[in-house]
Amino acid sequence: MSALYELVGRAEALIRDNSLPSVARWKEVTGGIAIGYMPVYVPREILHAQAVLPVGVFGGGEDLEIIRGDAFYQSYICHIPRSTIELGLNGSYDVLDGMIFPAICDVIRNLSGMWKLQFPAKLSRYLDVPQNFDPAIGGGFYRRELVELTLELEEHGARPYDADALRASIAAYNENRSLVRELDASRRLAPWKIPTSELYVVLRAALLLPVEAATTLFRDYLGLVRTENARRPLDQARVLVCGSFCEQPPLGLIKTLERSGCYIVDDEFLQIHRWIKGDVATAGDPLDALVTAFLNDAIESPVRYIGDRPKGAELVARVRASGAEGVLFCAPSFCDPALLDQPMAVKAMDAAGIPWTAFKYAENNGQFQVIREQAGTFADSIKLWSGV
Ligand code: SF4
Q: How large is the average pLDDT for residues 62-81?
């Protein structure tokens, strides 16, 4: 097997094992604590600076049988909270010393409350984020949240907060994010060289690793795909996939979209990698730097308030920048933030003359035939009629 396929195979094995063996190994070696976080954004720099391993948890995927998780949620709620609670109750997350639930939606807020009741001895924090972007109001509020987080981590066994350590951690994550940007740019240029189904596996595995190891993984992957000459371009339609920022689609669904004739040239999977768009400042007060980045340099997302700015404008800009020929609205069933934003985003696509289609999934879907036909027809119609 080539080094490239070996690397991707190792990454896939990591993300398929819900019992987080890599986290257990890290704890054995370092004696540190590990804290899980739900997508889509948490300030991982703070955890890293306090010698905590931040662990991205993204639900149970296709392979998990839900036995107790369904009892916690109504049938008209998305799937990720029930698989997350299932993994907590079946012992898969015993290796985690706590969880952080960022303010994404009401479902995650409820999940954080349930987690507190089920695991009272562990850290369980709901991380509120500002919806006001005035530095004095929303910024001040978020800074206080971050300070409280540092104290709570320390109470649960983390190293005390230290500004110099946080500056170093910010630099480590800046380097990591710059590689994600490089990977994204390379995919835009040659999506046949970096299939999204493969990039996704690498990016997701990185969220289980210390940031230094994740950065090495990205570098190694980039080096291997650059020298991989067997991959040749096909006549596929370039698409942007949006709406899948929280509950993740099964890997099989991403592969299905590619096999149906689409090159995914931009997406919202694993949004935490791209939440902050540029580098966070490494000079001055590092907590202020994280706050400023959140207020002024974060992406538009259905879970982030954007005030009076027109919804969908950033999506149109991303379509243009990525050279996408169409948009696939691909949201989890019952995902309020994604599905409430969709009509406004669709309006923006129509106004800009960008073709789109929409479908829904759940993380445990096993059948993709209908989606394959829909995405395939969409790709064909782009190839046949766009620009006519
Ligand atoms: S999938 Fe959507 S509704 Fe469900 S927890 Fe995530 S953001 Fe909330």
A: 89
Phi, psi of 354 (to 5 degrees): -100, 125
Q: Which of 73, 109, 246, 342 to mutate to test the pocket of ligand 1 (most atoms within 8 A of CB)?
A: 246
CB 372 within 8 A of CB 260: yes
| H/E run at residue 118 | helix 106-118
Instruction: Return the closest-CA partner of residue 305 out of 38, 140, 46, 105.
Output: 105
Rounded to the nearest angstrom, the distance between the alpha carbon of 333 and the centre of ligand 1 is 9
Return the pLDDT at 355. 97
Q: What is the mean pLDDT of the chain?
A: 95
Atom of ligand 1 nearest to the CA of 81: 5
Which residue among 78, 271, 361 is best mutated to probe the pocket of ligand 1, counting the most ligand atoms within 8 A of its Cβ?
78
Q: Letter for the amino acid at 105?
A: C
Q: How far apart are CA 329 and CA 348, in angstroms?
A: 13
pLDDT in tens, 79-126: 999 999 999 999 999 999 999 999 999 999 999 999 999 999 999 999
pLDDT per residue as tens digits for the range 290-308: 999 999 999 998 888 888 8
- To which residue do tokens 């990698």 refer? 273
Report whether residue 246 contacts ligand 1, using a CB cutoff of 6 Å: yes
Q: Is the CB of 20 under 6 A from ligand 1?
A: no
Model pLDDT for residues 133-151, shown as the tens digit of each residue: 999 999 999 999 999 999 9
What residues have CB less than 8 Å from 170, skipping those under 6 apart? 45, 280, 281, 282, 286, 289, 290
